Amino acid sequence: MKVAVVGATGLVGGEILKVLEERNFPVDELLLVASERSVGKQMAFKGKQIKVIGLQDAVAAAPQIAIFSAGGSTSTEWAPKFAEVGTVVVDNSSAWRMDPTKKLVVPEINAKELTKDDKIIANPNCSTIQMVVALNNLHQELKMKRIVVSTYQSVTGTGKNAVDQLMNERAGKEGDMAYPYTIDLNVLPHIDVFQDNGYTKEEMKMILETKKIMSDDSIRVTATAVRIPVMGGHSESVNVEFEKDFSLDDIYRILGETDGVKVVDNVKNLEYPMPKDAHGKDEVLVGRVRLDETQPRTVNMWIVADNLRKGAATNAVQIAEYLIKHELV
């Protein structure tokens, strides 16, 4: 099994390597791929040093699987080149997510849709992944009508340049700016570019991707995406209206039976999900579960996950594991 990690030197790329190693992914030859400026650099994997190669050399090697985390323009140009040599690409960028010919996959929800014909598979947006993992079983049993979500997203979702900006500001140092404003001791209601409808691209990703992953265009979703000066994970305040009646016990039961979800909800002991507790973990943490007292069949909850793990690297590796297990590569 020959596997390529494209964008290996980035934040998510490094996390992919960590997840591959932790999960003992069955790789015989690992290709670490990055832009020309990183070619020749050495990176560690399972105690060995591996030299970073360029994209053209990686395509020539024809790996069975390539996990991309190198940005949309790189994916748009190079994913089809890998696919042409028989490689199955799992792509972390937004390049292919809403392409009607490509599957948008969260393994716990819709991996069963994958076939041998799928050569480019899209990994959803980090904030979408954690939300749909928490809500999917609830949707199957109670049928969601409407989701109102506000996100509180880690600077790691932007990349190393944003982490550097936060740390520089905290240390009182000058440096490059990843954001148009200071992020330390501040909150930016602005993630990605603004669209004509006044929503940001990040907000529209959550709206459109949720419908596609769940194969249900009837679900109404509205989102506000916010960047906050934390690291460790994204948090979400989610209000969900269902078609069917339920009790709070039903919600806890369904969440407790949901793969990939851990309920952390004991307000008497001040136990609830926080980004620092999600950091380095693959579970989606859910807490602050309570009925919406303003309207029937509606519940509020707080959803937290490590955006570099389940929100990106772990989800991509889980897709790759599914491909191998079901002999789709």
Automatic annotation (TrEMBL):
<feature type="active site" description="Acyl-thioester intermediate">
    <location>
        <position position="126"/>
    </location>
</feature>
<dbReference type="Pfam" id="PF01118">
    <property type="entry name" value="Semialdhyde_dh"/>
</dbReference>
<keyword id="KW-0560">Oxidoreductase</keyword>
<protein>
    <recommendedName>
        <fullName>Aspartate-semialdehyde dehydrogenase</fullName>
        <ecNumber>1.2.1.11</ecNumber>
    </recommendedName>
</protein>
<feature type="binding site">
    <location>
        <begin position="9"/>
        <end position="12"/>
    </location>
    <ligand>
        <name>NADP(+)</name>
    </ligand>
</feature>
<keyword id="KW-0486">Methionine biosynthesis</keyword>
<dbReference type="GO" id="GO:0009089">
    <property type="term" value="P:lysine biosynthetic process via diaminopimelate"/>
</dbReference>
<feature type="binding site">
    <location>
        <begin position="37"/>
        <end position="38"/>
    </location>
    <ligand>
        <name>NADP(+)</name>
    </ligand>
</feature>
<dbReference type="GO" id="GO:0009088">
    <property type="term" value="P:threonine biosynthetic process"/>
</dbReference>
<dbReference type="GO" id="GO:0046983">
    <property type="term" value="F:protein dimerization activity"/>
</dbReference>
<comment type="pathway">
    <text>Amino-acid biosynthesis; L-threonine biosynthesis; L-threonine from L-aspartate: step 2/5.</text>
</comment>
<dbReference type="InterPro" id="IPR012280">
    <property type="entry name" value="Semialdhyde_DH_dimer_dom"/>
</dbReference>
<dbReference type="GO" id="GO:0009097">
    <property type="term" value="P:isoleucine biosynthetic process"/>
</dbReference>
<keyword id="KW-0521">NADP</keyword>
<dbReference type="InterPro" id="IPR000534">
    <property type="entry name" value="Semialdehyde_DH_NAD-bd"/>
</dbReference>
<comment type="similarity">
    <text>Belongs to the aspartate-semialdehyde dehydrogenase family.</text>
</comment>
<keyword id="KW-0457">Lysine biosynthesis</keyword>
<dbReference type="Pfam" id="PF02774">
    <property type="entry name" value="Semialdhyde_dhC"/>
</dbReference>
<feature type="binding site">
    <location>
        <position position="153"/>
    </location>
    <ligand>
        <name>substrate</name>
    </ligand>
</feature>
<dbReference type="InterPro" id="IPR005986">
    <property type="entry name" value="Asp_semialdehyde_DH_beta"/>
</dbReference>
<dbReference type="InterPro" id="IPR012080">
    <property type="entry name" value="Asp_semialdehyde_DH"/>
</dbReference>
<keyword id="KW-0028">Amino-acid biosynthesis</keyword>
<dbReference type="GO" id="GO:0050661">
    <property type="term" value="F:NADP binding"/>
</dbReference>
<feature type="binding site">
    <location>
        <position position="307"/>
    </location>
    <ligand>
        <name>NADP(+)</name>
    </ligand>
</feature>
<dbReference type="InterPro" id="IPR036291">
    <property type="entry name" value="NAD(P)-bd_dom_sf"/>
</dbReference>
<dbReference type="GO" id="GO:0071266">
    <property type="term" value="P:'de novo' L-methionine biosynthetic process"/>
</dbReference>
<comment type="function">
    <text>Catalyzes the NADPH-dependent formation of L-aspartate-semialdehyde (L-ASA) by the reductive dephosphorylation of L-aspartyl-4-phosphate.</text>
</comment>
<keyword id="KW-0220">Diaminopimelate biosynthesis</keyword>
<feature type="binding site">
    <location>
        <position position="227"/>
    </location>
    <ligand>
        <name>substrate</name>
    </ligand>
</feature>
<dbReference type="GO" id="GO:0004073">
    <property type="term" value="F:aspartate-semialdehyde dehydrogenase activity"/>
</dbReference>
<feature type="binding site">
    <location>
        <position position="97"/>
    </location>
    <ligand>
        <name>phosphate</name>
    </ligand>
</feature>
<dbReference type="GO" id="GO:0051287">
    <property type="term" value="F:NAD binding"/>
</dbReference>
<comment type="subunit">
    <text>Homodimer.</text>
</comment>
<feature type="active site" description="Proton acceptor">
    <location>
        <position position="234"/>
    </location>
</feature>
<feature type="domain" description="Semialdehyde dehydrogenase NAD-binding">
    <location>
        <begin position="2"/>
        <end position="117"/>
    </location>
</feature>
<keyword id="KW-0791">Threonine biosynthesis</keyword>
<dbReference type="GO" id="GO:0019877">
    <property type="term" value="P:diaminopimelate biosynthetic process"/>
</dbReference>
<comment type="pathway">
    <text>Amino-acid biosynthesis; L-lysine biosynthesis via DAP pathway; (S)-tetrahydrodipicolinate from L-aspartate: step 2/4.</text>
</comment>
